[in-house]
Specification:
Length: about 140
């Protein structure tokens, strides 16, 4: 199952946020093992780096980015995708960018802990638990 991972799930891993980190790591790992690399939006990497660097230092943030990129794919995000983000009319533009990136990259779902933010998304949102269940079925 091709999935784009929302920023909050990556931050759960990068900051070892309890109780969410374990499921986030399992999602990422099991997708990779299944031969379906987790997908990431480019802006997610920037946000992830910034927040992890503030909390844990730049060196650790850089290493975490390297680790993520070793097992994931960064999706394209171009002018048309940015315009689509505006057209989606989400309350939060970053969420709209995730939804537009997911749609453009033709993934099957967005893995997020904030499913309610993606109610109008053209790509369905799944919680980490629901994603793991589908991946395992």
């Amino acid at each position: 199952m091709r999935a784009l991972f929302d920023t909050n799930v990556l931050l759960d891993m990068g900051l070892a946020r309890k109780p969410f980190a374990e499921k986030a790591v399992a999602c990422f790992h099991e997708a990779w093992v299944a031969g379906v690399p987790p997908r990431l939006a480019p802006h997610t990497l920037a946000t992830f780096y910034y927040i992890v660097a503030q909390a844990r230092g730049k060196k650790r943030a850089g290493n975490a980015i390297r680790d993520l990129l070793a097992v994931s794919e960064v999706v394209r995000f171009d002018h048309d995708t940015a315009m689509r983000s505006i057209d989606l009319k989400f309350g939060d533009f970053e969420d709209a960018m995730i939804a537009a990136a997911a749609e453009a990259s033709e993934v099957e779902c967005i893995v997020t802990r904030n499913g309610r933010d993606f109610k109008t998304s053209p790509v369905p949102a799944l919680s980490p638990e629901a994603f793991l269940k589908r991946l395992r079925d």
